[in-house]
Amino acid sequence: MKKITLLFLLVFTLKISSQDHRIPTDTTVVTYHNAMINGKKITYKAQTGTQPVFDANGATKATLFYTYYQRTDVTRSEDRPLIMSFNGGPGSASVWMHIAYTGPKTLKIDDEGNPIQPYGIKDNPYSVLDVADIVFVNPVNTGYSRPVVKKGEKVDKKYFFGVNADARYLADWLNTFVTRNNKWKAPKYIIGESYGGTRVMQLAYELQSRQWMYLNGVIMVSPADYKIIRTESSEDFAINFPYFTAAAWYHKQLPPALQQKDLLEILPESENFAINKLLPALAKGGFIGETEKNSIAEQMAYYSGIDKKVILQQNLEIPNTYFWKELLRNSSKKTIGRLDSRYLGIDRKETGTRPDYSPELVSWLHSFTPAINYYTQNILKFKTDVKYNMFGPVRPWDFSNNNARENLRKAMAENPYLQLLVQSGYYDGATTYSAAKYTMGKIDPSGKLKNRMSFKGYRSGHMMYLRKEDLKKANDDLRAFILKSSKNIGAAKY
Protein backbone atom coordinates (compact mmCIF):
# COMPACT_ATOMS: atom_id res chain seq x y z
CA MET A 1 0.00 0.00 0.00
CA LYS A 2 1.69 3.10 -1.19
CA LYS A 3 1.49 6.30 0.81
CA ILE A 4 1.08 9.23 -1.55
CA THR A 5 1.24 12.21 0.74
CA LEU A 6 1.07 13.23 4.38
CA LEU A 7 -0.74 16.17 5.92
CA PHE A 8 -0.31 17.06 9.56
CA LEU A 9 -2.53 19.59 11.29
CA LEU A 10 -2.35 20.26 15.01
CA VAL A 11 -4.66 22.40 17.11
CA PHE A 12 -3.79 22.55 20.79
CA THR A 13 -5.27 24.56 23.66
CA LEU A 14 -2.89 25.42 26.47
CA LYS A 15 -5.50 26.19 29.12
CA ILE A 16 -6.56 22.57 29.40
CA SER A 17 -4.69 19.29 29.27
CA SER A 18 -5.61 15.68 28.71
CA GLN A 19 -5.11 13.34 31.63
CA ASP A 20 -1.94 12.25 29.82
CA HIS A 21 -0.20 15.47 28.77
CA ARG A 22 1.40 13.80 25.75
CA ILE A 23 -1.94 13.57 23.91
CA PRO A 24 -3.10 16.79 22.19
CA THR A 25 -6.84 17.36 22.21
CA ASP A 26 -7.46 18.20 18.55
CA THR A 27 -5.19 16.58 15.98
CA THR A 28 -5.50 15.36 12.40
CA VAL A 29 -3.06 13.21 10.42
CA VAL A 30 -3.96 12.25 6.84
CA THR A 31 -2.41 9.60 4.60
CA TYR A 32 -3.46 8.31 1.17
CA HIS A 33 -3.64 4.68 0.05
CA ASN A 34 -4.98 2.25 -2.54
CA ALA A 35 -6.38 -1.26 -2.21
CA MET A 36 -8.05 -4.17 -3.98
CA ILE A 37 -11.44 -4.58 -2.27
CA ASN A 38 -14.24 -6.85 -3.40
CA GLY A 39 -12.34 -7.46 -6.63
CA LYS A 40 -11.87 -3.80 -7.57
CA LYS A 41 -9.03 -1.32 -7.12
CA ILE A 42 -10.01 1.70 -5.01
CA THR A 43 -8.18 4.67 -3.51
CA TYR A 44 -8.88 6.00 -0.05
CA LYS A 45 -7.85 8.55 2.54
CA ALA A 46 -7.05 7.55 6.13
CA GLN A 47 -7.63 10.36 8.59
CA THR A 48 -6.61 9.69 12.17
CA GLY A 49 -6.14 11.83 15.25
CA THR A 50 -8.05 13.19 18.21
CA GLN A 51 -11.26 15.19 18.39
CA PRO A 52 -12.61 16.85 21.57
CA VAL A 53 -15.74 15.95 23.51
CA PHE A 54 -17.45 19.25 24.29
CA ASP A 55 -19.92 19.71 27.13
CA ALA A 56 -23.06 21.88 26.95
CA ASN A 57 -21.00 24.98 27.70
CA GLY A 58 -18.42 24.27 25.02
CA ALA A 59 -15.74 23.17 27.48
CA THR A 60 -13.52 20.23 26.51
CA LYS A 61 -14.28 17.16 28.65
CA ALA A 62 -12.16 14.60 26.79
CA THR A 63 -10.37 13.88 23.55
CA LEU A 64 -11.25 10.78 21.52
CA PHE A 65 -8.84 9.00 19.23
CA TYR A 66 -10.40 7.92 15.94
CA THR A 67 -9.50 6.63 12.47
CA TYR A 68 -11.65 7.61 9.51
CA TYR A 69 -11.44 5.92 6.12
CA GLN A 70 -12.93 7.77 3.15
CA ARG A 71 -12.94 6.46 -0.42
CA THR A 72 -11.50 9.11 -2.75
CA ASP A 73 -12.12 7.75 -6.27
CA VAL A 74 -15.82 8.65 -6.16
CA THR A 75 -17.95 11.71 -6.80
CA ARG A 76 -20.22 13.30 -4.21
CA SER A 77 -18.45 11.79 -1.19
CA GLU A 78 -20.88 13.66 1.06
CA ASP A 79 -23.61 11.23 -0.08
CA ARG A 80 -21.68 8.02 0.60
CA PRO A 81 -22.92 5.88 3.51
CA LEU A 82 -21.06 6.39 6.79
CA ILE A 83 -20.43 3.58 9.30
CA MET A 84 -19.64 4.70 12.88
CA SER A 85 -17.90 1.75 14.56
CA PHE A 86 -17.52 0.86 18.24
CA ASN A 87 -16.32 -2.14 20.19
CA GLY A 88 -17.45 -3.00 23.68
CA GLY A 89 -16.04 -4.07 27.02
CA PRO A 90 -17.09 -1.67 28.38
CA GLY A 91 -13.54 -0.37 28.24
CA SER A 92 -12.45 -1.93 24.94
CA ALA A 93 -10.72 -0.06 22.14
CA SER A 94 -12.02 -0.08 18.57
CA VAL A 95 -9.00 -2.12 17.47
CA TRP A 96 -10.83 -5.43 17.02
CA MET A 97 -13.19 -4.59 14.17
CA HIS A 98 -10.78 -1.92 12.89
CA ILE A 99 -7.92 -4.20 11.87
CA ALA A 100 -9.74 -7.52 11.61
CA TYR A 101 -13.24 -6.97 10.19
CA THR A 102 -14.48 -3.98 8.20
CA GLY A 103 -11.36 -1.82 7.76
CA PRO A 104 -9.00 -1.92 4.76
CA LYS A 105 -6.31 -3.75 6.73
CA THR A 106 -6.48 -7.00 8.64
CA LEU A 107 -4.21 -9.07 10.86
CA LYS A 108 -1.54 -11.48 9.72
CA ILE A 109 -3.14 -14.63 11.14
CA ASP A 110 -3.87 -18.10 9.83
CA ASP A 111 -7.19 -18.95 8.18
CA GLU A 112 -8.77 -19.96 11.51
CA GLY A 113 -7.64 -16.82 13.38
CA ASN A 114 -4.55 -18.09 15.23
CA PRO A 115 -1.50 -15.81 15.68
CA ILE A 116 1.52 -16.30 13.45
CA GLN A 117 4.88 -14.55 13.46
CA PRO A 118 6.09 -12.10 12.42
CA TYR A 119 3.10 -10.15 13.67
CA GLY A 120 1.61 -7.43 11.54
CA ILE A 121 -1.09 -6.45 9.08
CA LYS A 122 -2.04 -7.16 5.49
CA ASP A 123 -4.63 -5.90 3.03
CA ASN A 124 -8.27 -6.82 3.70
CA PRO A 125 -9.84 -7.67 0.32
CA TYR A 126 -13.29 -8.08 1.94
CA SER A 127 -13.60 -4.66 3.62
CA VAL A 128 -16.86 -2.76 3.12
CA LEU A 129 -14.92 0.43 2.34
CA ASP A 130 -16.01 -0.04 -1.28
CA VAL A 131 -19.61 0.83 -0.33
CA ALA A 132 -19.25 2.99 2.80
CA ASP A 133 -16.85 5.31 4.60
CA ILE A 134 -15.96 4.11 8.11
CA VAL A 135 -14.92 5.85 11.31
CA PHE A 136 -13.57 3.76 14.20
CA VAL A 137 -14.15 5.52 17.52
CA ASN A 138 -12.37 4.87 20.81
CA PRO A 139 -14.42 5.91 23.87
CA VAL A 140 -12.70 7.56 26.84
CA ASN A 141 -9.71 5.62 28.26
CA THR A 142 -9.58 3.23 25.30
CA GLY A 143 -6.98 3.42 22.54
CA TYR A 144 -5.35 6.85 22.93
CA SER A 145 -8.59 8.53 24.09
CA ARG A 146 -8.33 10.31 27.43
CA PRO A 147 -10.41 12.60 29.67
CA VAL A 148 -9.41 16.25 29.87
CA VAL A 149 -9.12 17.86 33.29
CA LYS A 150 -7.90 21.14 34.68
CA LYS A 151 -4.89 21.05 36.94
CA GLY A 152 -5.84 19.81 40.41
CA GLU A 153 -9.24 18.44 39.35
CA LYS A 154 -10.35 14.80 39.08
CA VAL A 155 -11.93 13.00 36.15
CA ASP A 156 -15.72 13.24 36.13
CA LYS A 157 -16.37 9.48 35.85
CA LYS A 158 -20.15 9.88 35.92
CA TYR A 159 -19.92 11.89 32.70
CA PHE A 160 -18.42 8.95 30.78
CA PHE A 161 -18.78 5.56 32.45
CA GLY A 162 -22.33 4.25 32.28
CA VAL A 163 -24.95 2.96 29.83
CA ASN A 164 -26.65 6.35 29.52
CA ALA A 165 -23.64 8.64 30.02
CA ASP A 166 -21.60 6.74 27.43
CA ALA A 167 -24.23 7.10 24.70
CA ARG A 168 -24.89 10.73 25.58
CA TYR A 169 -21.33 12.03 25.18
CA LEU A 170 -20.63 9.79 22.17
CA ALA A 171 -23.71 11.20 20.43
CA ASP A 172 -22.37 14.71 21.07
CA TRP A 173 -18.98 13.68 19.66
CA LEU A 174 -20.52 12.12 16.56
CA ASN A 175 -22.50 15.29 15.87
CA THR A 176 -19.22 17.22 15.79
CA PHE A 177 -17.56 14.57 13.64
CA VAL A 178 -20.38 14.45 11.07
CA THR A 179 -20.40 18.26 10.86
CA ARG A 180 -16.63 18.54 10.48
CA ASN A 181 -16.55 15.88 7.76
CA ASN A 182 -19.64 17.03 5.82
CA LYS A 183 -21.60 13.78 6.22
CA TRP A 184 -25.03 15.07 7.21
CA LYS A 185 -26.55 14.02 3.85
CA ALA A 186 -25.10 10.51 4.00
CA PRO A 187 -27.02 7.36 5.00
CA LYS A 188 -25.72 6.58 8.49
CA TYR A 189 -25.01 3.35 10.36
CA ILE A 190 -23.76 2.51 13.81
CA ILE A 191 -22.09 -0.84 14.50
CA GLY A 192 -21.15 -2.19 17.92
CA GLU A 193 -19.56 -5.43 19.04
CA SER A 194 -20.17 -7.15 22.42
CA TYR A 195 -21.04 -4.40 24.95
CA GLY A 196 -21.14 -2.32 21.81
CA GLY A 197 -24.49 -4.01 21.17
CA THR A 198 -25.95 -2.31 24.22
CA ARG A 199 -24.07 0.87 23.27
CA VAL A 200 -25.58 1.14 19.78
CA MET A 201 -29.10 0.27 20.97
CA GLN A 202 -28.90 3.23 23.35
CA LEU A 203 -26.93 5.41 20.95
CA ALA A 204 -29.51 5.06 18.17
CA TYR A 205 -32.10 6.81 20.34
CA GLU A 206 -29.61 9.39 21.63
CA LEU A 207 -28.64 10.34 18.08
CA GLN A 208 -32.22 10.61 16.89
CA SER A 209 -33.81 12.22 19.97
CA ARG A 210 -31.09 14.70 20.98
CA GLN A 211 -28.98 15.21 17.86
CA TRP A 212 -31.82 14.80 15.31
CA MET A 213 -29.47 12.51 13.41
CA TYR A 214 -31.58 9.79 11.78
CA LEU A 215 -30.06 6.43 10.95
CA ASN A 216 -30.49 3.86 8.21
CA GLY A 217 -29.11 0.95 10.16
CA VAL A 218 -27.97 -0.46 13.49
CA ILE A 219 -25.59 -3.43 13.37
CA MET A 220 -25.01 -5.51 16.49
CA VAL A 221 -22.04 -7.89 16.35
CA SER A 222 -22.07 -10.61 19.03
CA PRO A 223 -24.17 -8.29 21.21
CA ALA A 224 -24.08 -8.31 25.01
CA ASP A 225 -27.55 -7.59 26.37
CA TYR A 226 -27.23 -6.70 30.05
CA LYS A 227 -30.91 -7.30 30.66
CA ILE A 228 -30.15 -11.03 30.46
CA ILE A 229 -26.39 -11.70 30.40
CA ARG A 230 -24.92 -13.16 33.60
CA THR A 231 -28.20 -12.76 35.50
CA GLU A 232 -28.26 -16.53 36.28
CA SER A 233 -32.03 -16.42 35.86
CA SER A 234 -34.08 -19.23 34.34
CA GLU A 235 -34.06 -17.28 31.07
CA ASP A 236 -30.29 -16.88 31.15
CA PHE A 237 -29.64 -20.61 31.65
CA ALA A 238 -32.17 -21.70 29.04
CA ILE A 239 -31.45 -19.11 26.35
CA ASN A 240 -27.72 -19.95 26.30
CA PHE A 241 -28.25 -23.71 26.05
CA PRO A 242 -28.19 -24.03 22.22
CA TYR A 243 -24.62 -22.68 22.33
CA PHE A 244 -23.73 -25.80 24.38
CA THR A 245 -24.95 -27.91 21.47
CA ALA A 246 -22.84 -25.94 18.98
CA ALA A 247 -19.65 -26.16 21.04
CA ALA A 248 -20.17 -29.86 21.83
CA TRP A 249 -20.77 -30.58 18.13
CA TYR A 250 -17.53 -28.80 17.19
CA HIS A 251 -15.55 -30.88 19.70
CA LYS A 252 -17.35 -34.10 18.68
CA GLN A 253 -18.89 -34.68 22.11
CA LEU A 254 -22.50 -35.28 21.03
CA PRO A 255 -24.21 -38.67 20.60
CA PRO A 256 -23.75 -40.20 17.10
CA ALA A 257 -27.35 -39.42 16.11
CA LEU A 258 -26.55 -35.69 16.43
CA GLN A 259 -22.85 -35.70 15.64
CA GLN A 260 -23.40 -37.14 12.17
CA LYS A 261 -25.71 -34.25 11.23
CA ASP A 262 -24.63 -30.79 10.15
CA LEU A 263 -24.51 -28.07 12.80
CA LEU A 264 -27.35 -26.10 11.25
CA GLU A 265 -29.56 -29.19 11.24
CA ILE A 266 -29.28 -29.75 14.99
CA LEU A 267 -29.36 -26.18 16.32
CA PRO A 268 -33.09 -25.68 15.62
CA GLU A 269 -33.77 -28.85 17.64
CA SER A 270 -31.74 -27.52 20.56
CA GLU A 271 -33.40 -24.09 20.34
CA ASN A 272 -36.83 -25.70 20.42
CA PHE A 273 -35.90 -27.78 23.46
CA ALA A 274 -34.41 -24.77 25.27
CA ILE A 275 -37.48 -22.55 24.81
CA ASN A 276 -40.32 -25.04 25.02
CA LYS A 277 -39.04 -27.54 27.58
CA LEU A 278 -35.96 -26.38 29.47
CA LEU A 279 -37.18 -22.85 30.26
CA PRO A 280 -40.53 -24.00 31.78
CA ALA A 281 -38.70 -26.70 33.77
CA LEU A 282 -36.16 -24.24 35.20
CA ALA A 283 -38.96 -21.83 36.11
CA LYS A 284 -40.37 -24.47 38.47
CA GLY A 285 -37.19 -24.54 40.55
CA GLY A 286 -37.33 -27.02 43.42
CA PHE A 287 -40.99 -27.77 42.76
CA ILE A 288 -40.28 -29.68 39.57
CA GLY A 289 -41.29 -33.35 39.76
CA GLU A 290 -38.59 -36.03 39.79
CA THR A 291 -39.87 -37.64 36.59
CA GLU A 292 -39.78 -34.38 34.69
CA LYS A 293 -36.43 -33.42 36.21
CA ASN A 294 -34.84 -36.68 35.06
CA SER A 295 -36.36 -36.36 31.61
CA ILE A 296 -35.07 -32.81 31.19
CA ALA A 297 -31.60 -33.81 32.45
CA GLU A 298 -31.49 -36.65 29.95
CA GLN A 299 -32.35 -34.33 27.07
CA MET A 300 -29.82 -31.76 28.30
CA ALA A 301 -27.14 -34.44 28.28
CA TYR A 302 -28.16 -35.46 24.77
CA TYR A 303 -27.87 -31.92 23.40
CA SER A 304 -24.82 -30.76 25.40
CA GLY A 305 -22.33 -33.60 25.79
CA ILE A 306 -22.44 -33.16 29.58
CA ASP A 307 -23.10 -36.22 31.75
CA LYS A 308 -26.67 -36.50 33.07
CA LYS A 309 -25.39 -37.08 36.61
CA VAL A 310 -23.47 -33.81 36.55
CA ILE A 311 -26.53 -31.97 35.24
CA LEU A 312 -28.68 -33.32 38.07
CA GLN A 313 -26.00 -32.37 40.60
CA GLN A 314 -26.27 -28.81 39.21
CA ASN A 315 -30.09 -28.86 39.52
CA LEU A 316 -30.37 -28.43 35.73
CA GLU A 317 -28.62 -25.03 35.98
CA ILE A 318 -25.36 -25.18 34.02
CA PRO A 319 -23.54 -21.84 33.91
CA ASN A 320 -21.48 -21.19 30.80
CA THR A 321 -18.37 -20.93 32.98
CA TYR A 322 -18.93 -24.49 34.23
CA PHE A 323 -19.53 -25.78 30.70
CA TRP A 324 -16.17 -24.41 29.51
CA LYS A 325 -14.45 -26.43 32.22
CA GLU A 326 -16.61 -29.56 32.05
CA LEU A 327 -17.10 -30.37 28.36
CA LEU A 328 -13.66 -31.93 27.76
CA ARG A 329 -12.78 -32.71 31.39
CA ASN A 330 -13.05 -36.48 30.86
CA SER A 331 -11.67 -36.66 27.29
CA SER A 332 -8.79 -34.36 26.30
CA LYS A 333 -8.76 -32.81 29.80
CA LYS A 334 -8.59 -29.34 28.32
CA THR A 335 -10.83 -26.31 28.75
CA ILE A 336 -12.61 -24.50 25.93
CA GLY A 337 -12.62 -20.78 25.19
CA ARG A 338 -15.14 -18.29 26.52
CA LEU A 339 -15.40 -15.94 23.54
CA ASP A 340 -14.62 -18.65 21.00
CA SER A 341 -15.02 -22.24 22.13
CA ARG A 342 -12.94 -23.62 19.29
CA TYR A 343 -9.87 -22.59 21.31
CA LEU A 344 -8.41 -24.91 23.94
CA GLY A 345 -6.70 -24.16 27.26
CA ILE A 346 -4.68 -26.05 29.85
CA ASP A 347 -5.53 -25.50 33.52
CA ARG A 348 -3.40 -26.17 36.58
CA LYS A 349 -6.01 -28.62 37.87
CA GLU A 350 -8.65 -30.71 36.13
CA THR A 351 -11.02 -30.13 39.04
CA GLY A 352 -12.89 -26.86 39.51
CA THR A 353 -15.92 -25.00 38.21
CA ARG A 354 -14.37 -22.56 35.75
CA PRO A 355 -11.23 -22.29 33.58
CA ASP A 356 -8.08 -20.56 34.82
CA TYR A 357 -7.95 -18.24 31.80
CA SER A 358 -9.52 -17.50 28.42
CA PRO A 359 -7.28 -19.13 25.79
CA GLU A 360 -8.90 -17.29 22.90
CA LEU A 361 -8.39 -13.84 24.39
CA VAL A 362 -4.68 -14.29 25.09
CA SER A 363 -4.33 -15.68 21.56
CA TRP A 364 -6.00 -12.61 20.09
CA LEU A 365 -3.94 -10.19 22.17
CA HIS A 366 -0.86 -11.90 20.73
CA SER A 367 -1.86 -10.67 17.29
CA PHE A 368 -3.78 -7.45 17.85
CA THR A 369 -1.50 -5.56 20.26
CA PRO A 370 1.65 -5.45 18.12
CA ALA A 371 -0.39 -4.97 14.95
CA ILE A 372 -2.33 -1.87 16.07
CA ASN A 373 0.74 -0.23 17.60
CA TYR A 374 2.78 -0.82 14.45
CA TYR A 375 -0.03 0.19 12.11
CA THR A 376 -0.99 3.41 13.90
CA GLN A 377 2.54 4.76 14.17
CA ASN A 378 4.15 3.46 10.97
CA ILE A 379 1.35 3.40 8.39
CA LEU A 380 -1.15 5.96 9.70
CA LYS A 381 1.72 8.14 10.99
CA PHE A 382 0.11 9.01 14.32
CA LYS A 383 3.14 9.37 16.59
CA THR A 384 2.84 9.28 20.39
CA ASP A 385 4.48 7.80 23.48
CA VAL A 386 1.09 7.26 25.11
CA LYS A 387 0.09 3.66 25.73
CA TYR A 388 -2.59 2.28 23.43
CA ASN A 389 -5.20 0.87 25.80
CA MET A 390 -6.58 -2.37 24.39
CA PHE A 391 -8.69 -2.35 27.56
CA GLY A 392 -8.86 0.81 29.62
CA PRO A 393 -9.96 1.76 33.16
CA VAL A 394 -13.71 2.55 33.05
CA ARG A 395 -14.92 1.06 36.32
CA PRO A 396 -17.26 1.35 38.02
CA TRP A 397 -19.63 1.22 35.04
CA ASP A 398 -23.15 2.41 35.80
CA PHE A 399 -25.69 -0.12 34.47
CA SER A 400 -28.65 1.51 36.19
CA ASN A 401 -31.64 2.70 34.15
CA ASN A 402 -30.63 0.49 31.25
CA ASN A 403 -33.46 0.94 28.76
CA ALA A 404 -31.37 0.27 25.67
CA ARG A 405 -33.75 -2.34 24.24
CA GLU A 406 -36.77 -0.09 24.56
CA ASN A 407 -34.86 2.90 23.24
CA LEU A 408 -33.90 1.02 20.10
CA ARG A 409 -37.55 0.06 19.65
CA LYS A 410 -38.55 3.70 19.93
CA ALA A 411 -35.85 4.73 17.48
CA MET A 412 -37.11 2.16 14.95
CA ALA A 413 -40.75 3.10 15.52
CA GLU A 414 -40.00 6.79 15.00
CA ASN A 415 -37.83 6.19 11.93
CA PRO A 416 -39.34 3.95 9.21
CA TYR A 417 -35.95 3.84 7.43
CA LEU A 418 -34.11 2.29 10.39
CA GLN A 419 -33.21 -1.40 10.05
CA LEU A 420 -31.39 -3.83 12.34
CA LEU A 421 -28.77 -6.48 11.49
CA VAL A 422 -27.45 -8.88 14.14
CA GLN A 423 -24.34 -11.00 13.49
CA SER A 424 -23.20 -13.79 15.83
CA GLY A 425 -20.82 -16.74 15.93
CA TYR A 426 -22.28 -20.10 16.96
CA TYR A 427 -19.23 -20.90 19.13
CA ASP A 428 -19.36 -17.68 21.16
CA GLY A 429 -19.89 -18.70 24.80
CA ALA A 430 -19.85 -15.18 26.25
CA THR A 431 -22.59 -13.49 24.21
CA THR A 432 -24.29 -16.49 22.65
CA TYR A 433 -26.00 -16.49 19.28
CA SER A 434 -29.22 -17.76 20.85
CA ALA A 435 -29.20 -14.89 23.37
CA ALA A 436 -28.79 -12.47 20.45
CA LYS A 437 -31.90 -13.92 18.80
CA TYR A 438 -33.73 -13.66 22.12
CA THR A 439 -32.76 -9.98 22.41
CA MET A 440 -34.17 -9.30 18.93
CA GLY A 441 -37.54 -10.63 20.04
CA LYS A 442 -37.45 -8.59 23.24
CA ILE A 443 -36.61 -5.33 21.48
CA ASP A 444 -40.08 -5.30 19.93
CA PRO A 445 -42.58 -7.49 21.82
CA SER A 446 -45.35 -6.43 19.42
CA GLY A 447 -43.60 -8.07 16.47
CA LYS A 448 -44.56 -5.13 14.26
CA LEU A 449 -40.94 -4.24 13.51
CA LYS A 450 -39.55 -7.74 12.91
CA ASN A 451 -39.66 -7.33 9.12
CA ARG A 452 -36.87 -4.76 9.58
CA MET A 453 -34.69 -7.12 11.65
CA SER A 454 -32.33 -9.78 10.30
CA PHE A 455 -29.96 -12.32 11.88
CA LYS A 456 -26.82 -13.86 10.41
CA GLY A 457 -24.89 -16.70 12.08
CA TYR A 458 -21.33 -17.92 11.46
CA ARG A 459 -19.27 -21.04 12.22
CA SER A 460 -16.88 -19.24 14.52
CA GLY A 461 -16.93 -17.31 17.78
CA HIS A 462 -17.33 -13.81 19.22
CA MET A 463 -15.09 -12.27 16.57
CA MET A 464 -16.42 -14.35 13.71
CA TYR A 465 -14.35 -12.34 11.26
CA LEU A 466 -11.08 -13.90 12.46
CA ARG A 467 -11.93 -17.03 10.49
CA LYS A 468 -11.14 -16.26 6.85
CA GLU A 469 -14.29 -17.87 5.45
CA ASP A 470 -16.46 -15.87 7.85
CA LEU A 471 -14.50 -12.65 7.30
CA LYS A 472 -15.70 -12.76 3.70
CA LYS A 473 -19.21 -13.92 4.53
CA ALA A 474 -19.79 -11.40 7.32
CA ASN A 475 -18.55 -8.49 5.19
CA ASP A 476 -20.71 -9.66 2.28
CA ASP A 477 -23.73 -9.75 4.61
CA LEU A 478 -22.89 -6.29 5.90
CA ARG A 479 -22.37 -4.97 2.38
CA ALA A 480 -25.74 -6.33 1.26
CA PHE A 481 -27.42 -4.78 4.33
CA ILE A 482 -25.93 -1.36 3.57
CA LEU A 483 -26.81 -1.44 -0.13
CA LYS A 484 -30.39 -2.48 0.62
CA SER A 485 -31.05 -0.07 3.49
CA SER A 486 -29.45 2.95 1.82
CA LYS A 487 -31.65 2.79 -1.28
CA ASN A 488 -34.30 5.42 -1.82
CA ILE A 489 -37.44 3.48 -0.92
CA GLY A 490 -39.75 6.46 -0.89
CA ALA A 491 -41.05 8.68 1.87
CA ALA A 492 -40.28 7.83 5.50
CA LYS A 493 -43.84 7.10 6.59
CA TYR A 494 -46.13 4.23 7.57
Briefly summarize what is shown.
Keywords: Carboxypeptidase, Glycoprotein, Hydrolase, Protease, Signal. The chain is an alpha/beta fold and 494 residues long.
Describe this structure in words.
This protein is an alpha/beta fold and 494 residues long. Helix content is 35%, strand content 19%. The chain is built from 14 helices and 16 strands. Strands 1, 2, 3, 4, 5, 6, 9, 10, 11, 12, 15 and 16 form a twelve-stranded mixed sheet that branches. A two-stranded antiparallel ribbon has the order 7-8. A hairpin with a 2-residue loop joins strand 3 and strand 4 (40-54). Residues 1-16 have low confidence and may be disordered.
What are the secondary-structure elements, in order, as H or E? EEEEEEHEEEEHHEHEHHHHHHEEHHEHEH
The total count of strands amounts to 16
CATH superfamily of the largest domain, by name, is Alpha/Beta hydrolase fold, catalytic domain
Instruction: Find the CATH topology of the largest domain.
Output: Rossmann fold
The structural domain count equals 2
User: Strand percentage, roughly?
Assistant: 15-25%
Number of helices: 14
Class by alpha and beta content: alpha/beta
Tell me the Rg in angstroms.
23 Å
Q: Span from first to last CA?
A: 47 Å
Q: Could you say what the CATH architecture of the largest domain is?
A: 3-Layer(aba) Sandwich
**Largest β sheet strand count, sense and barrel closure:** 12 strands, mixed
Task: Characterize the overall form.
Answer: globular
